[in-house]
Amino acid sequence: MSTHDNGHEAGHDVVVHDGDALPARFENPGFEKHHPRMGDLDEHANKKSERIVVALFTISILGTLFFLIAYFVWPPGTTPVEMRRSNLALGLGLAFALLGIGTAAIHWAKALMNDHEKSEERHEQRSDDDTRAGAIEVLKDGAADSAIGRRGVLKGAMITALALFPLPIVLALIGNIGEDWNIGQLKHTMWKKGTRLTTDPVGRPVKASDVTIGSVWHIIPEGLDKEPHPLDEKAKAVVLLLRLDPRDIKREQGVGWSYDGILAFSKICTHVGCPVALYEQQTHHLLCPCHQSTFDVADGAKVIFGPAKRPLPQLPITVDDEGYLVAQSDFHQPVGPSFWERLK
């Protein structure tokens, strides 16, 4: 038997690879010896596995019921504490509802159904009619192998868990019926003519002389930190304040909307509403950390990368008699995601 170069056949049954003689093909070793499970040998163990599956489906049922109770007992409310409490309760209920169904299905398959190894030869994607009919028979055999027809308690637990699980989703949808669906209100924020720009969260007014080139300030309307306002008002009104060299500004969204290179843009990304807060000073780019939408603040905050479809709305600003930065008006475009309906 002769030896050839790397990767070439050196005989009928041997090939050479990296200087090593290897078999040209390997015989199918077949399956390892099958080891029966405890449930296959002991009826008591089999029943125990069935009870475990029932218990897991019961956990799912209880999780769903807890979600439904929490939805009415602990509504989201308007304060951070109420929101955290509601989200925690709903999240725990939904987690156990899903976890119970998933782990029950896995344990059912591993402990109660047939675990004998099988193999099939590869074939064309479209099998002949006899093979397809055989596949249907295999599915029927699998259903019979699950013994769901003989396990009444297990079947009842599974059906109940699966029947109740959609309720958290349906309830949340039904709960929104009758709510305020006036999308037009999203076009308006607390900003108005003469409102001072103040720092978030302490509410300190900002003078134009305080803002240096390259700096970024997180801004809220004056008074937002003192008066009781709904959280969504702050969510709509938050602003990023930046200062560029006036010579670097290519375009604004409105004439005279900046002051000596100071620009103010909505902090809410126009993709799905994440806070835009990563500023690249050298390129004048604002980056959204959620999905990497990138806006060029030197060019009217237009989108230069990512899934956002429109620029960040610009807040028109100027200074008052004391040198403090103030708004000229509200935003001229609605803030937030572009899929919100907008009134023309």
From TrEMBL:
<keyword id="KW-0560">Oxidoreductase</keyword>
<feature type="domain" description="Rieske">
    <location>
        <begin position="236"/>
        <end position="326"/>
    </location>
</feature>
<feature type="transmembrane region" description="Helical">
    <location>
        <begin position="157"/>
        <end position="178"/>
    </location>
</feature>
<keyword id="KW-0472">Membrane</keyword>
<keyword id="KW-1133">Transmembrane helix</keyword>
<dbReference type="InterPro" id="IPR014349">
    <property type="entry name" value="Rieske_Fe-S_prot"/>
</dbReference>
<protein>
    <recommendedName>
        <fullName>Cytochrome bc1 complex Rieske iron-sulfur subunit</fullName>
    </recommendedName>
</protein>
<dbReference type="InterPro" id="IPR045603">
    <property type="entry name" value="QcrA_N"/>
</dbReference>
<keyword id="KW-1015">Disulfide bond</keyword>
<dbReference type="InterPro" id="IPR017941">
    <property type="entry name" value="Rieske_2Fe-2S"/>
</dbReference>
<keyword id="KW-0479">Metal-binding</keyword>
<dbReference type="Pfam" id="PF00355">
    <property type="entry name" value="Rieske"/>
</dbReference>
<dbReference type="InterPro" id="IPR005805">
    <property type="entry name" value="Rieske_Fe-S_prot_C"/>
</dbReference>
<keyword id="KW-0249">Electron transport</keyword>
<feature type="transmembrane region" description="Helical">
    <location>
        <begin position="86"/>
        <end position="109"/>
    </location>
</feature>
<feature type="transmembrane region" description="Helical">
    <location>
        <begin position="52"/>
        <end position="74"/>
    </location>
</feature>
<dbReference type="Pfam" id="PF19297">
    <property type="entry name" value="QcrA_N"/>
</dbReference>
<keyword id="KW-0408">Iron</keyword>
<keyword id="KW-0411">Iron-sulfur</keyword>
<keyword id="KW-1003">Cell membrane</keyword>
<keyword id="KW-0812">Transmembrane</keyword>
<comment type="similarity">
    <text>Belongs to the Rieske iron-sulfur protein family.</text>
</comment>
<keyword id="KW-0813">Transport</keyword>
<keyword id="KW-0679">Respiratory chain</keyword>
<dbReference type="InterPro" id="IPR036922">
    <property type="entry name" value="Rieske_2Fe-2S_sf"/>
</dbReference>
<keyword id="KW-0001">2Fe-2S</keyword>
<comment type="function">
    <text>Iron-sulfur subunit of the cytochrome bc1 complex, an essential component of the respiratory electron transport chain required for ATP synthesis. The bc1 complex catalyzes the oxidation of menaquinol and the reduction of cytochrome c in the respiratory chain. The bc1 complex operates through a Q-cycle mechanism that couples electron transfer to generation of the proton gradient that drives ATP synthesis.</text>
</comment>
